[in-house]
Amino acid sequence: MTLGIAACAGSEGEQRYPTEKPGGKSDPFGNSRAVTEPGIFGEGGLFSLGSGGDGGNGNGIGVNSFLWRASLDTTSFMPLASADPFGGVIITDWYTAPEAPAERFKMTIYILDTRLRADGVKVSVFKQQQTPDGTGWADAAVTPGTSAQLENAILIRARQLRIDTLAAEE
């Protein structure tokens, strides 16, 4: 076994993994954008959010960053159960409005594109009402058009974020 490992070394000497890229900045992952764009944990952090100048697709997330942020802003009043920026799925937990304690809502938001488009977001809304005996919850019909209204609210917010970003770049 030792001979097999020694034979792999070859006569060219020891191979070393590059720790610096041509610009001189250290980047062990070989990603030139990770060092220059801010991420969640600072420059080169967990994933780069991008400035939106690249069409808003955010270089580290798999979906349009404006739609992503707008979706989180629009649903910020609801508790968040799960958020996957790479797959583009946001799932809220059940939310009960103080003015209607006998019903609760839950949403799943899908960001479907890397571009800011009207068909780039889909919202599914779920509603439950308290059972007549008050011991549990039963599925109920959602008012028609609720999903479309939420999609429109997300799109309006995404456009505002994009306009704000473009104005800040000028």
Describe the structure concisely.
By secondary structure, this protein is of the alpha+beta class. It is 28% helix and 21% strand. It has helices at 2-9, 32-36, 65-74, 146-169; strands at 38-39, 42-43, 80-84, 89-92, 103-111, 121-130, 137-140.
Description:
This protein has 170 residues and is of the alpha+beta class. The chain has 2 domains: 33 residues, no CATH class; 105 residues, Alpha-D-Glucose-1,6-Bisphosphate, Chain A, domain 4, CATH 3.30.530. The protein contains 4 helices and 7 strands; from the N terminus they run ααββαβββββα. Helix 3 crosses helix 4. The N and C termini lie far apart (63 Å).
Task: Please write out the topology.
Layout: H1 2-9, H2 32-36, E1 38-39, E2 42-43, H3 65-74, E3 80-84, E4 89-92, E5 103-111, E6 121-130, E7 137-140, H4 146-169
Antiparallel strand pairs: 1-2, 3-4, 4-5, 5-6, 6-7
Helix pairs in contact: 3-4
